């Protein structure tokens, strides 16, 4: 296949960039339309709320004559007139429901956090729908649960046992029946009051004694899921016992940047191969360590200087003049190195350089 792809979702810069590097034209429908996305895409259509996404994606597909559709977060179940390249919407919908995902893990015999009855604490509370983990919280009492659930009215939620350990994930490629693990990732969580479990970046590969076992479990899970193309499986790696499966992401994941930088693969190319039944012959060997960290606003701010001048160390670059509320994502910072320690040390230097610009805003 060649031509132009529609890439739609809440944040699509990473997917669009991979598609462009694979040789495709890109039309993006995205909440941010950051500067680096605008440079990658032939056209970029911005939406405010997910309720607008379906209509804008359909209009963009008609206007720009795309050959296929790649789904990002928030677009997994869209039905458009152009061919969907990836997991069927009904399958994606199953794994966007955390209760259904829990049932899938239980039926497969994979270790997952136990469901807890109301009134059993401590408990991990998470909305049944939603991604990124930023709404998840450990609850210690009925009053805490009432206060937490009031923040997300009219949303169903799940209570699970709290599993301590290292947050991690595996990026897989699947053809609907089989899957190959491309990379293991250590997830970087945001931390801070109310955002403890929010995704804030990744380190690839994951240096942990359970990483190899986790990769094998992820291949079993992704292969049995019916997902097609890129699929991610989130885990907690505990101090004792096997990896604990947490969620399935039936789409491209936020770890795409570090997976591609660490392994040298192109995820969109592998995704499209999987859509026609071709999987890699073997897991790719990591060539280096790669890390990405999302920086968040510590106050309300208006973007000043164009951070494009920082080149490859920065991504998801907001246009000057963008108003960013306190607590919202501002920019991503990246680094690589021969080992995790070196990559993280270089990341710290890059973060300092980026913050030097942000402090002037």
Number of strands: 17
Q: Assign the CATH topology of one domain.
A: Rossmann fold
Average pLDDT works out at: 95
Beta-strand content bin:
25-35%
Biggest β-sheet strands, sense, barrel? 8 strands, antiparallel
Oligomer: single chain
Please give the alpha-carbon distance between the first and last residues: 45 Å
Task: Name the poorly predicted regions.
Answer: none
Q: Quick one: overall form?
A: globular
CATH 2nd-level architecture of one domain: 3-Layer(aba) Sandwich
CATH class of one domain: Alpha Beta
Computed CA radius of gyration, to the nearest angstrom: 20 Å
* Strand arrangement, major sheet: 12-11-8-9-10-13-17-15
Which sequence of SSEs, written as H and E, runs from N to C?
A: EHEHEHEHHEEHEEEEHEEHHEEEEEH
- Which structural category do the helix and sheet elements fall into? alpha+beta
Number of helical runs?
10
Overall helicity: 25-40%
Characterise this structure.
With 361 residues, this protein is α+β, with helices and mostly antiparallel strands. Among the domains are: 82 residues, Rossmann fold; 52 residues, no CATH class; 70 residues, no CATH class. The chain has ten helices and 17 strands. It has an eight-stranded antiparallel β-sheet, sandwiched between helices. A four-stranded parallel β-sheet has the order 3-2-1-4, with helices on both faces. Helix 1 links the parallel strand 1 and strand 2. It starts with a strand and ends with a helix. The model has no long low-confidence stretch (mean pLDDT 95).
């Amino acid at each position: 296949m060649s031509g132009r792809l529609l890439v739609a979702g809440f944040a699509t810069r990473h997917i669009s960039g991979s598609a462009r590097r694979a040789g495709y034209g890109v039309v993006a429908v995205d909440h941010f339309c950051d500067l680096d996305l605008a440079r990658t895409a032939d056209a970029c259509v911005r939406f405010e709320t997910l309720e607008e996404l379906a209509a804008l994606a359909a209009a963009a597909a008609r206007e720009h004559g795309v050959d296929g559709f790649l789904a990002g977060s928030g677009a997994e179940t869209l039905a458009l007139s152009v061919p969907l390249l990836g997991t069927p919407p009904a399958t994606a919908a199953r794994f966007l429901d955390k209760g259904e995902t829990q049932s899938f893990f239980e039926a497969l015999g994979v270790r997952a956090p136990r469901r807890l009855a109301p009134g059993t604490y401590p408990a991990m509370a998470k909305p049944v729908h939603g991604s990124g983990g930023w709404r998840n919280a450990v609850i210690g009492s009925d009053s805490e649960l009432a206060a937490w659930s009031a923040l997300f009215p009219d949303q169903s939620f799940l209570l699970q046992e709290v599993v301590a350990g290292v947050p991690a994930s595996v990026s897989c490629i699947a053809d609907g029946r089989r899957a190959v693990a491309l990379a293991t990732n250590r997830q970087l969580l945001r931390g801070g009051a109310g955002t403890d479990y929010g995704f804030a970046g990744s380190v690839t590969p994951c240096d942990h004694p359970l990483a190899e076992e986790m990769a094998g479990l992820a291949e079993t899970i992704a292969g049995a899921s019916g997902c097609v193309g890129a699929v991610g499986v989130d885990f907690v790696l505990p101090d004792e016992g096997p990896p604990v499966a947490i969620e399935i992401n039936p789409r491209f994941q936020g770890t795409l940047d570090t997976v591609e930088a660490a392994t040298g693969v192109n995820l969109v190319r592998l995704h499209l191969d999987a859509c026609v039944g071709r999987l890699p012959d073997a897991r790719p060997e990591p060539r280096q360590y790669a890390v990405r960290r999302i920086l968040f606003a510590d106050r309300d701010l208006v973007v000043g200087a164009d951070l494009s001048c920082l080149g490859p160390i920065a991504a998801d670059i907001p246009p000057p003049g963008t108003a960013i509320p306190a607590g919202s994502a501002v920019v991503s910072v990246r680094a690589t190195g021969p080992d995790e320690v070196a990559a993280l040390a270089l990341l710290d230097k890059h973060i300092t350089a980026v913050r030097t610009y942000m402090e002037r805003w």
